[in-house]
Amino acid sequence: MPSGDTTETSAPGTLIGVAGMRPSVRGRFPVRRSSERCGTSRGCRSLRHVLMIGLTGGIGSGKSTVAKLFAERGALVIDADALAREVVERGSQGLAAVRERFGADVVREDGSLDRAALGAVVFADPAARRDLEAITHPLIRARTQEIIAAAPVGTIVVHDIPLLVEIGAGPQYHLVVAVDVDVEERVRRLAAFRGLAAEDARARIAHQATREARLAVADAVVDNNGDPGALAAQVEALWQRFVAFEANVRAGIPADLPTPVHLLAGRVTGSGAEARRLLARIAYRLGPLLGVEATYDHVGPTAVPGLTAPALIHLLIGVPDTAPAQVDDLRAALGRLGHPEGADGVFLSCDPGRPVRIRLCQEGSAEWRDQLFCRDWLVAEPSAREAAATAHRAAAETSSSWEAYESKVAGWWQRVRPTAEAWASQRGWRPQGTSAADVLAGA
């Protein structure tokens, strides 16, 4: 059986629903009293069980070495390949099902699985491969959940999963780490350490997700082209980020936010890759609570290509009137994902490596419209974008706090709003949120 070809995972834990509240007239939901927030609620703490890290990398990338380095620092490493072997061990339910489907020829005389024989069948026949996955995936998923459930509160779980990209599992983790190595170096390593011919090594690499696809879903990339010392230093830096992230999630507090001018740092933002990954995670977690009518959008300066502004990601969640869940359910889910509620009712980030602000607004409300309106106007109008960059830069350079910065930017927006409204009227602009399906498809 091909290593890693039968792995899948699902999000651990369940959400606890409690009574909720309806939004204000402008569309923002009421702010909780500090004693009611997820950081102090027993029910919310029960959701903060472990921090889930997805670790992926192609064959020959050294992913197992990276997993070992994380384990040495205290991570609980769940090896998806090892579980794929475990669920079809001799005498197992999985092996019995495999034998029933594929026949006695895939089982050795000693009763163990003949992996080479099974691999020859499933590699040549996509339907057979799907049948194998239908047997093993549920067993692997159940075993994975069993391990996670038994882990102590506060554990950092590193899920070593080769097919993370192929099965679209990225949104199920707090963070995804990809191990990256040049293709020719991977071919060299596979020849040196596994005895594979170069042609065979390239064929196996081509059979997996592309390098570009892995990097697209990664929140962090470990470059394993260098020496072991450089690799260990990268892993240590990531580990410190994980430790702080987990502690903040468990306590229900956001990571410290750098000053506006620090985040300005001459950076041109707008690629949107980080925002897309965040929105995919949020849509994945909140989708069952909000229903299919909810919207998930990247707004604010980082949603405008070419606009130089502090690199603080702003996300907007449009809550429909038909949402099956109450607001407290959403707060709990966001808290578990690492986004506790701030004093102003905006949700922040526990991850010290990525500052974020998330607004929950009623779809169709004035605030929901304004967030989309400002973004779309700046994207469409170069002169407006240039003026916005000047305003953001001036506000960042003259503000020691985010409150002061945001007040200055809000003042600029009120001054230019008549111009923006005229543009909207001329263009026939209407607010259009992004569905969960579109967000997940683009992640």
Rg on CA atoms, Å:
24 Å
Termini separation: 30 Å
SS class: alpha/beta
Count of discrete domains: 2
Quaternary structure: single chain
Let me know the number of strands: 8
Give me the CATH fold name of the largest domain: Rossmann fold
Structure description:
By secondary structure, the chain is of the alpha/beta class. Helix 13 links the parallel strand 7 (313-319) and strand 8 (356-362). The chain folds into 2 domains: 34-249, Rossmann fold; 264-441, 2-Layer Sandwich (Beta Polymerase, domain 2), CATH 3.30.460.10. It has helices spanning 42-47, 63-72, 80-86, 93-102, 115-124, 126-150, 183-194, 198-207, 211-217, 228-251, 260-264, 273-290, 327-337, 366-380, 382-397, 402-427, 436-441, and strands at residues 50-57, 76-79, 155-160, 175-180, 220-223, 295-299, 313-319, 356-362. The radius of gyration is 24 Å and the shape is elongated. It has a 5-stranded parallel β-sheet, sandwiched between helices. Strands 6-7-8 form a 3-stranded mixed β-sheet, with helices on both faces. Helix 5 crosses helix 6 (126-150) and helix 7 packs across helix 8 (198-207). It starts with 41 loop residues before the first helix and ends with a helix. One of its GO terms (molecular function) is dephospho-CoA kinase activity. Catalyzes the phosphorylation of the 3'-hydroxyl group of dephosphocoenzyme A to form coenzyme A.
